[in-house]
From TrEMBL:
It comes from Pedobacter terrae. Pfam families: HTH_18. It comes from the Bacteria. The chain crosses the membrane at residues 12-29, 70-88, 108-126, 138-157, 172-190. The keyword Membrane applies. One of its GO terms (molecular function) is DNA-binding transcription factor activity. This is AraC-type DNA-binding protein. Keywords: DNA-binding, Membrane, Transcription, Transcription regulation, Transmembrane, Transmembrane helix. InterPro entries: Homeodomain-like_sf, HTH_AraC, HTH_AraC-typ_CS. SMART domains: HTH_ARAC (SM00342). PROSITE patterns: HTH_ARAC_FAMILY_1, HTH_ARAC_FAMILY_2. Residues 219-326 form the HTH araC/xylS-type domain. The keyword Nuclease does not apply.
Amino acid sequence: MLLKLTSIFNKLILLSACLGIYVVFYKFQWTINEISLTERLWNPAWMLFGPLLHLALRSLPGARMTGKDGLHLIPAAITSVIYAYVWFGEIFHYTWAGSAFAFYQSSYLVISISLITYSCLTLNRLYSAQHTPANDLLVMWAAIYIIIATLMILMYLCWNVFKIDMGIDYRFFSYFLLLSKCFLGFRYLVNAPTALPAKLEDAVTPMYANSQLSTEMAERYSKMITDCFDNTNIYLKSDLSLELLSKTLDIPKHLLSQIFTVHMKLTFYKFVAQYRINYAIEQMKSSNGMLTIESLAYECGFNSKTSFNKYFKQITNLTPQEYQRTHLDPQRTP
């Protein structure tokens, strides 16, 4: 059976699974008669599992991996430098090596922080996700990481805080779970589909998948919304909100949100901003650019000049000042 490495996601899964096996073999001493844990420095590769989970999530359809995602590897890099520093101290028997070794060994709580943080972020992102093999794998990995992190916190409290002998070394359970995670990764790579879904919609279940809102009702409500905005200046109200519009049109708030997101394909605030910016352009033309940007922003219902500039740029691809210079009489433009 061949591993399918046709996507960045699959390659990240393979890397994480191989790292897991490396971490296990690094920590255990294998003999013919027994398997035991060594007292080596904890492996800084532990700090890569969380970032690799994040990168795998970012490589799924609908997400976009950027250079900034590489910043997540910085804690692992710093830990590796400290590890190398302590290791060399041990090799060459420097006087400070003993205290540095003890400090590094007792700092493994940072592993728990990393695993829990990235796992919770992953579970939150995939909360409404469809049950695809890739999504299910990340969810299982995140759950395993949380259990491992919980065991590490328990060990830290018992050994370093309360000085309690637990009677059993829970590290065996942690490494067993890590091996289980590796097994799940390799099983996925063997049985993985040849390609991940091409669109985000194919990978993530819409929030309103189980909604009872019919197409006819959605069209009727959509027309009520556009008629209201076309025939009134409700969009000029600075306190306009989804709740206020719901009361005005007598449409349940949760249905309004669904109509904007699913049927109109834009957010409520973007919809309102389009009307406000169109109104602003009309005012610019009628005053021939004599209005200041700030006064125009407040007249259109925006609460700040910054917000006005942001939406103006998004909708027209020009700043208000650029629009004035381009479309209005240069001699009358301030």
